[in-house]
Amino acid sequence: MSSEPPRSLTAGGSPAASSRSPVADVGLLLEGTYPYVAGGVSSWVHQIINGFPDLTFAICFLGSRRQDYGEKKFQLPANVVHLEEHYLYETTGTPPVTPQPGDGPMFDLNRELHTYFRDPRGQAERGGEVLATLTGELQGRLDRSQFLYTEASWNYITEQYRERCTDPSFVDYFWTVRTMHTPIWVLSAVVEQFPAVGCYHSVSTGYAGFLGALLKRRWGHHLILSEHGIYTKERRIDLYAARWIADNRTLLQRDATQAGYFRTMWIRFFEALGRMCYDASDQIIALYEANRLRQVQDGADAARTSNIPNGIDVVRFGALRALRPATVPRIMCLIGRVVPIKDIKTYIRATRIMANRFPDVQAWIAGPEEESPDYAAECKDLVASLGLQDNVKFLGFQKLTDLLPQIGLVVLSSISEALPLVILEGYAAGVPTVSTDVGSCRQLVYGLDDEDQALGASGAVVGIADPQALAEAALQLLGDEAAWHRAAQAGIARVERYYTHPVMFARYRAVYDQALDRMAHDPATERPPEH
After folding, report:
1. Which of 46, 176, 369, 521 is a Cys-bridge partner for 376, taking CB atoms 3.0 to 4.6 Å apart?
2. Kind and range of the H or E run holding 185
């Protein structure tokens, strides 16, 4: 394991963390997104940075392994003054084997932390105290060599296995625990070296949110959390589908309604990380009300939660309407990553149904494939098996301003979404949508309150994993120009009224002003002297 040395853009080339004076107003904590991954969340981060040119930003990017990411997908704006990258599962950098007895009291503290992991609601107050103490010790008394090579660590792991594990494989348990803990030392090193900033802003829970909690406990600065989707819900979906998690139950023992022991361990781990971030955050922001209520259900303090919907550059995308053809093109496009959570296969199966009626229908897929190459290969095999080579096109990453004037529908077949920017951008460009009933999509298509609903439907919403319903909804719009134009006009009216950049930026200006005002007036939030 190793983390890459931080790539600092700070003037002078000196280590950014050596100064007590903040090098940036906002420290953005980003997991697997900007600037190396395209998509809705990354686009939103880019909007936020560009939307506040008077503020400076320091970025901490967390990834799995360097080889999983290519070149930057975004050019960093001038007000990004620091960028550092850390990879949580690099195989290099393991400390040399140095057998030692270990620090028993520190493993007792670790035991308390794991008690919190198993019952975050019941241990909320004690969990924060333990986390604050442990944060300061992870690079000293409980460094990674202590965890890997000490007798105390071995005794702790074997004790936990005997007491709690219901799976017969100790080997699988041992390596699951090691893998689960590997990122903690990467993150603890980030806490010590990340430059001083006015406030922290994490754009998810998970590892980035846990880093935010560690930074908050260590330095005391204001922590903002913005969740586009509910991270723990999305990770649960990923973990149920993951093939790398051991499940040693026999076919007769397996119950489709219950996850195996190790899968449950991972789910509980990410739920605990999420709760720690909620407990540490000063402001917890959701995109829409259903997600805010889910945050409260998962342990967030309702008094610290609020909703700020996404906004887009309506003027920029609105200019694309003049470029549209006179007739509605029978081209639909799924704009997003080629990954299981987007359920590309349902989209492909729906295309087969549509092609039986409109043989010339085109189903484009515009998004990167490198995140899940095996799944992308399966999708292409499905296209071939259904005889859709002339209908389905994998376009890779595309500029939306080039793409939107050419298509008739934006389609989302996802099994999980938050508030998809691509739907709003399509509306502004005059393109209606067909989406599964996930996240805020029903609100975006049919409206939220009476005034919003009076604008009309800007497309259609269908059930998850239902290619027949998806096909019928798309056929109804692409086959009826009058219905298509009504939906397009409703989308334009909705986005212009409720989902603009000025509305979103005004709300986030208040969030940042509150965080930075506290920094300016509360001496307790000053970074302690370096030792």
Report:
1. 369
2. helix 170-193
Question: What whole-number distance in Å separates Cα of residue 402 and Cα of residue 399?
Answer: 5
**Domain 314-498: which CATH class?**
alpha beta
pLDDT in tens, 81-128: 999 999 998 866 666 666 666 666 666 666 666 666 666 565 555 555
213-252 pLDDT tens trace: 999 988 889 999 999 877 877 777 777 777 778 777 666 6
pLDDT on residue 269: 85
With beta carbons less than 8 A apart as the criterion, state whether 126 and 135 touch. Answer: no
Cβ(492)–Cβ(293) below 8 Å: no
d(CA 210, CA 103): 24
Pick the CATH number of 1-95+184-311+500-531 from 2.40.50.100, 3.90.850.10, 3.40.50.2000, 3.30.365.10: 3.40.50.2000
71 vs 251: CA distance, rounded Å: 43
DSSP string computed for 297-342: HTT--GGGEEE----B-HHHHHGGGGGS-SS--SEEEEES--SGGG
pLDDT tens-place string over residues 314-362: 999 999 999 999 999 999 999 999 999 999 999 999 999 999 999 999 9
**Would you state the torsion angle of the CA atoms of residues 15, 20, 24, 26, taken in this order, to the nearest 10 degrees?**
120
**Residue-range domain boundaries for the chain:** 1-95+184-311+500-531, 314-498
Q: CA distances (Å), 417 to each of 106, 176, 233, 287, 348, in order?
A: 41, 29, 11, 11, 19
d(Cα 410, Cα 334) in Å, to the nearest integer? 6
pLDDT, position 467: 98
- Output the six-digit token pair for 429: 């460009």
**What global pTM score does this model have?**
0.73
Structure tokens at 509: 């200006």
Q: Is the dihedral of CA 454, 455, 457, 463 positive or negative?
A: negative
